[in-house]
Amino acid sequence: xxxxxxxxxxxIGSSRFRGAGxxxxxxxxxxxxxxxxxxxxxxxxxxxxxxxxxCTEEVISKNATTTVVPLADKDDCVCIYESISDTxxxxxxxxxxxxxxxxxxxxxxxGEMPQxxxxxxxxxxxCTEKVVGPTVTEG
Length: 139
Fold this sequence. Notes:
- By secondary structure, the chain is α+β, with helices and mostly antiparallel strands.
- It has one domain (2-127).
- Helix content is 41%, strand content 13%.
- It has 5 helices and 5 strands.
- A 3-stranded antiparallel sheet has the order 2-5-4. The chain has a two-stranded antiparallel sheet with strand order 1-3.
């Protein structure tokens, strides 16, 4: 189990999210820039930076304490971003479709989870599923 980093020098436990956890994270924090307070208009360096920041950790400010909770592996988040932003990828998601999803998230009531685009869901699954144990290759 990973520990979160809390700036008041106390620690709380946090389990690492996988698959559905990353999907849940993406529903809460949009890839297009809400995390940093700026709004890219395409898949660019700023959009990638914002996506990775929102995907890898959650920053919670409450009662004069800032807590940074690790969420997903950076490699998984990079894989997801590259999968949805690469026009040659099977999981390519048009920027406009990502924006439409962000709008649904913003309008959703607390506790509601809008249906994410299928390609986003498939990219998350492909990037977060890990092969465990030995693999067999024919030779």
